[in-house]
Design a protein that fits this description.
mainly alpha, Herpes Virus-1, two-stranded antiparallel sheet, 4 strands
Length: about 110
């Protein structure tokens, strides 16, 4: 960023095309920055909510920290997320073959 382009050797059409490409790149970068900012805010809010819920006596032993659904032995068993160590239900986790461990949806997003 901040570098100047020397467009003197280009035709007017070529210079216009370069300008359009640079403008499109700037729009895409701004859009990506906004997306990442929203994702960071979402993860921060999720972390705050989980911290609050985990302070309730035995909440995470009975319910998923992400969606609050109750655990059941066969239908909705709890698994511990490798990264955050919270218990999560089957809807809020994925299995990482690389790590050979369960990850909650929030920790997977943050990776």
């Amino acid at each position: 960023m901040g570098r100047k382009l020397d467009l003197t050797g280009l035709t007017e059409n070529e210079a216009e095309h370069v300008l359009q490409v640079v403008q499109r790149d700037m729009r895409l970068r701004k859009k990506e920055e906004e997306r990442l900012s929203e994702l960071k805010q979402e993860l921060d809010e999720e972390g705050s909510r989980c911290l609050l819920l985990s302070q309730q006596a035995c909440f995470n032993q009975r319910c998923c920290i992400r969606c609050c659904s109750p655990f059941t032995f066969l239908l909705n068993p709890k698994r511990q997320c490798r990264d955050c160590r919270y218990n999560v239900c089957k809807a809020c986790r994925v299995y990482s073959k690389r790590d050979k461990a369960w990850l909650c949806s929030a920790c997977q997003k943050s990776r």
